[in-house]
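Tutorial sheet, problem 5. The two components below are modelled jointly, 871 residues in total.
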Amino acid sequence: MRKLKTLIMATAAASTFATVALAERGSDGNLNVAYWQAVSILNPYLSGGTKDIEASSLILDPLANYRPDGSMEPALATEIPTIENGGVSEDLTSITWKLRDDVVWSDGTPFTAADVVFSANYCLDPEGGCNAASNFADVESVEALDDHTVKINFSVAKPFPYGPFVGATAPVIQEAQFKECMGAKAPECTEANFGPIGTGPFVVDEFRANDVVTYKANENYRDPAQPAFATVTLKGGGDSAATTRSVLETGEFDYAWNVQVEPEVLDQMMAAGKGEIISAFGTSVERLMVQLTNPDPSLGDKRATVEGGPHPFLSDINVRKALSMAIDRDILVEVGYGPNGQVTCNVLPAPEIYASTANDACKTQDVEGAKALLDEAGWLPGPDGVREKDGVRLSILYQTSTNSVRQGTQALIKQMWQEIGVETELRNIDAGVFFGGDQSSPDTFQKFFADIEMYTNNFDGTDPEAYMGNWVCSEIPSPKNQWIGNNMPRFCSEEYDALSAEMGQTASIEKRSALAKKMNDMLMQEYVIIPLIHRGRVSAASNTLGNVVLNPWDSELAFAEEWTRVE
Amino acid sequence: MTDQAATTTLGKPQRSLWGDVLRQFLKHKGGVAGLVIFSFILFAVLFGPYIHTIDPQYLDIRNKNLGPTWKHPMGTDNLGRDGLAQVLSGGRVSLAVGIAAMALSLLLGTLIGILAGFFRKLDGPLMRTTDLFLALPILPLLLVIILLFRDTLRSAFGPEMGIFLLIVFVIGITSWMNTARIVRGEVLAVKEREFVLAARSIGTGSTKTILRHIFPNVLSPVMVSATLGIATAIITESALSFLGLGFPSDFPTWGRLLYDGANFMTLNPARVIWPGLAISLTVLSVNYIGDGIRDALDPRIRGR
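Model answer (structure tokens):
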């Protein structure tokens, strides 16, 4: 390894002399990035995996990116359209983007409004499964006013019109390359999907699916001084502890994505002094989803659907409330997350203006209160210490994905629930299966054939409208919609649906924040979602890497063109 | 050789076959050492939890990541669970899985191997079945089996017993092929030997021939497979648990303890040393026992 490193450094030194003519571009040699989930495709419209979206964000640019502080910065556009500068229409039904006229694709052809229009049509094609569909929600049409002006029309008033083409999930792809790949043919265009032509700082050199991507600097990048690195190697695979170790302890890599390691292990890795942990608090919340419908296997096709009837005991709000009260969230943070987690009582913990303070009682554990609540509701301890009522035992099947931190949390919560007389059986499922969305597997988080499940979710950008819309009745996953939907608890309330609809038509930021808080409080006070930990997004960066700031609102690699090598 | 054996038996009292085997086994130092260690491990995991009475699943957060103390001789893990209690209770599961799965795969493998080797007509179909099983991708197969039977078994036998039966079955059903192939080869060779010919010439039936003449002669490879099988079963169980297909995550087994401890190796080496040592000692001692038994059962070595 050391030899290889010397070689790399020698190459880097050599290339410094070779590229003097090109100012600073490519002067810093090779950048080694480790992702513990391997990249399988470089077209973000065809993959829901964060790793795929981030790997392609080095190649493809959207019209604007989110900066690490949550603000928007134009990328391919000249400015961010607002009502004040006339970019957003007064009735909120259209947004007009002015494009930069000096941008060319990495193959040298000019970038025009036609490419933007094409990208929208590519995603909106009804025959193709577009992963960024929620970004393009309510888009009626996209038209090119001239070569460098694009107008997006919405079918309803959009108080937050920055869904399309903002952030790494919805970048602009080249019409010339993808025009044969519309709709059902999209997944078949392997060459384009594995090596898209982009406007970003890097171009694909070699891509081995589910293994390594190597990039080289885009000679036609719009900023002549960027990127500082001549090549990038993005290695996929392994596990989080291994990739983190490769940055912090052995120094083989410069950047490791998504660190999920116990705090004491992390401390020890950091003691080697080769790198540091960078983190930022976005909107990620580790939460428990409570199953409100009956997951009994004997129900067959009606299992875990609204038709199958309510859950035998979790449909009782007292049980749900007691489960939440019994949890000591401070211990969960201390054991599993350390400085990278905070106790939270909200499913919507950030940005600040949307965070409710109405539920903070959950921050302190209340075992006696939980016991009293269950006693009052008629759930009395049976001969084996497990509470029961009318022959129904409080016995919970609790599932999550396989990850040592999560299994630790599971074990802790099991013990806390045991104290109030609730029996728990733990189950962990491989992350690929759990989050995979395979229709044939009973173990996906959408099917939720269990009583409680735990995972983290967040939303891109800073606007919670789409995120809070996850828990309306129509989002309930069921066989009728191929188990696609985000309402895992199967929560359904007319009042909530009305609030969600109202938010879609409200422009004022104060009113939106009040609505979002109200929706959050409703979910919390019904105890259908039990929030545990507000998680920071954590990655590891080598000490020799400069200008790295973790970006919780967009792809972590969205600003990789600014990264440099420092000694 | 026969003369020598005849002369030695003359002056001494009558000796039985199994007496001879035992005597020969006791001469095998490795085998005896293996037996002692294996018995000790077995004894420890069976009776240890009655002496060291800490609940292996109890989390004591204030005492996490401890080194060895009098109360926790093997330290505690990052959730404050007692190391010794976990190793002991994990050993029960791992040994039970290892022995039961080995027995199942051995039974299947030997049966199929002998049938295929002895009966020419069965050879083709049985060996093609073996090839089929060898060609099956194990992981998807496991996924399907677990998907189909997990909930049924769970409701019938409870989560832990249900998974135990499933794992034993899955490991047994996917690891008999090598035994079958080895046994078949050995049977093919033995079947052509003179003593089998002699037995057939005096009219011995197939069942008798197999039990009396063939089986004892293929016992050596079977023993070797058996000892290796336990090791494989213990390791496979841990791999399954790691993928989330095995026992619940708070249910200790040696393999799981090893996997969970790997990240904490530099912080708390005891977490990997003890379960690792337990697995290695078990596998090694079982291997030596197998070696000893093999030698003791071999008439050409015995009595020399």
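Marking note: Residues 20-49+75-297 of chain B form a domain with the MetI-like fold fold (CATH 1.10.3720.10). Full credit if you identified this.
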